[in-house]
Design brief:
With 161 residues, the chain is α/β, with parallel strands linked by helices. Helix content is 47%, strand content 16%. The protein has two domains: 1-33, no CATH class; 35-160, 3-Layer(aba) Sandwich (Rossmann fold).
């Protein structure tokens, strides 16, 4: 991805959300890059993620959104936001998002999981959460953590505007 920092165009493979950047570099990179957010929710959490997206619609419209199939459709229908939809989670959508994350194409994951219901694709879910840990990508698995991460992102973006 080419960015312009006031001096020269340079190529970055990853925005400043991961380690290895100074704060000055982070702020410059952050200001010119689109934050890529993955949105995933289990069936019993879909209403929650739509409500969360509504609460943070002003922020999410400034981001590139990627979601699993039904979750992405619900968010797009409810809010009119553009959402790149992957397959449904049980059909490989979680793995598709994990692959993008591993390639540096996802900056944060909001994954509202239902811990009380067994999931047939539990290994895929664990692989995605593990990939977040391996690649140091923020991952919220409940509504409170999601609000904290999104609130901080909004504050950072507003400060740079």
């Amino acid at each position: 991805m080419q960015v312009y920092d006031g001096r020269e165009a340079r190529s970055l493979s990853r925005p400043g959300l991961r380690g290895g950047h100074s704060m000055d570099s982070f702020n410059k990179d952050f200001a010119v890059m689109t934050i890529r957010v993955a949105l995933i929710a289990h069936d019993k959490k879909k209403d929650d993620i739509v409500a969360l997206a509504h609460e943070f619609a002003d922020l999410l419209q400034r981001c590139r959104l990627v979601a699993t199939g039904t979750t992405g459709g619900r968010i797009a229908d409810a809010l009119g936001l553009p959402v790149e939809r992957m397959l449904s989670g049980p059909l490989g959508g979680d793995l598709q998002i994990g692959a993008q994350l591993s390639e540096g194409q996802i900056d944060m994951v909001i994954f509202l999981r239902d811990p009380m219901t067994s999931q047939p694709h539990e290994p895929d879910i664990n692989a995605l959460v593990r990939a977040c840990d391996v690649h140091d990508v923020p991952c919220a698995t409940n509504i409170t953590t999601a609000r904290l991460i999104l609130s901080q992102l909004r504050q950072n973006l507003d400060a740079l505007a």
